[in-house]
Amino acid sequence: MADLLLKFEGSALIKALSDLAGGISQGQVAASPDVPASSGFLLQRSLFQYGTATTFSNGIILANDLFQAKKTIAATSFATIDLTGGSDKNYKGDALAFTAIKFVLLGVDQPDGTKAFRVGPQNQSNAWQGWFGGVGAQAYDLEYWWLAKTSPPAGWAVTAGSADQFVLYNPGATSIDVNIAIVGVR
What dotted CATH number matches 54-185? Predict the structure, then answer.
């Protein structure tokens, strides 16, 4: 099975991912039928294998699915990712079918200190609660650079049809691109 390629730029983001995942090597390049060769950083198989239920001794699954994308969010607009289907696909092109989220990494593309995004339920329909402790209008994190979050061992639950929309919002006056990686369990 090929290693996965995560494309994120910026040394702080690389360090955060490396510290949290323990398996990122700067400057590595992957080439396989699944992952084209290009610059980026590898998420090692020791952390994640697609479709493989890697488990801890207590039976908790580490992770077996990945969503990775760059989303353009228009000024003062929301963007959502359907964690259990819809048009959003994993890196293999399969419909998303997360039951739990283990790791989230988000970053502003070409940050400049003025571009920002909000991540969290923000009172949106069928919003995924994640680490926010609620789904109201004030349930969000505001980020100008990047965000990396790891879950409790069992992950943050995803409920198809009622709590499965990963919500982003651009509060700014111009569109922004946000790099996204979500690792979880199918």
Answer: 2.60.120
